[in-house]
Each structure stands twice: as structure tokens, then as C-alpha cells.
Amino acid sequence: MRFFWLLLVIAYSAFIFYLSDQPSLAVPALFPQQDKLLHAIAYGVLAFLALNYLKHQPLTFNAALVYSFFYCALYGVSDEWHQSFIDGRQADVFDWLADCSGALFLLISVKGLQNDVVLKAKIGKIFHRL
């Protein structure tokens, strides 16, 4: 299973690289700054994939969360740097902040869900003993 998640991380990272290598993307503008939302979603997905790969490593869950975030943040920096060499594109620190925000939002949500599941399991054990 670990190899499967690694392949997904690599493939999705390559997909982001491919999109960043395009001079422009034909996305209809529905609202101002929608590209920031798209960045956040894209890097939320990347964080999800990275976390699932790292969960299969000899790491604590919290360490997997942190490493997933740092992978996304560093990949986002490299993506923005890459875009600075593409005609029609430019590096933007606000795009990188959107990348980091999307990854962080996903990882905090997953951590919250994990805490909720653990709490429910503990409560269930307490009531089962009664």
C-alpha cells in the first residue's frame, strides 16, 4: 500500500508541475482571486496524498502531519520558482501562501477527525464497561 501512495504523490506532483509549465490555463474567472482557492484545493489534495504515504512509514501520526505540510510548502516554493521561468507565468508569494493554507487546512481537518474518532472510541469503551 505504501508504494501505491508514493506513486500517487509522484503522479500528482508531476501533474502540478505540468500545469505550472503551461503559459496560461483556460479557467473561466468566476470571482476575484479564484486562483488562490484553486491553489488551496490543489495543495490540500497533495497534503492528503502525502499524509497517506507517510502514514505507512515508521512515524507517529503527528510527525506524518508535519512532514506532509513541509513537503507541500517546499513543493509550493519550488513550483513558484519554476513558474518564474515560464513565459506568461510569474512567481507569486500569495500563491505559495494559498498552497500552504490549503495543505494546512486539510491536515488540521484530518487531525481533528482523528481526535474525534479516538474520543468516540474511548467513550464507547467506557460505556461498554458499564
H-E string: HHHH
Q: What structural class is derived from the secondary structure elements?
A: mainly alpha
Biggest sheet features: none
* Rounded radius of gyration (Å): 18 Å
Q: Hey, roughly how much beta strand do the residues contain?
A: under 5%
The total of helices stands at: 4
Residue runs with pLDDT of under 50 for 5 or more positions: none
- Intertermini distance: 39 Å
The portion of residues assigned to helices is over 70%
- Whole-number count of domains: 1
Cα shape: elongated
Mean of residue pLDDT? 92
Number of strand elements: 0
Provide a descriptive summary of the structure in words:
With 130 residues, the protein is an all-alpha fold. The chain has one domain. Helix content is 77%, strand content 0%. Helix 1 packs parallel to helix 3 (61-83).
Protein topology:
Blueprint: H1 2-20, H2 34-54, H3 61-83, H4 93-129
Helix pairs in contact: 1-2, 1-3, 2-3, 2-4, 3-4
What can be said about this structure in brief?
The chain is mostly helical. It has helices at residues 2-20, 34-54, 61-83, 93-129.
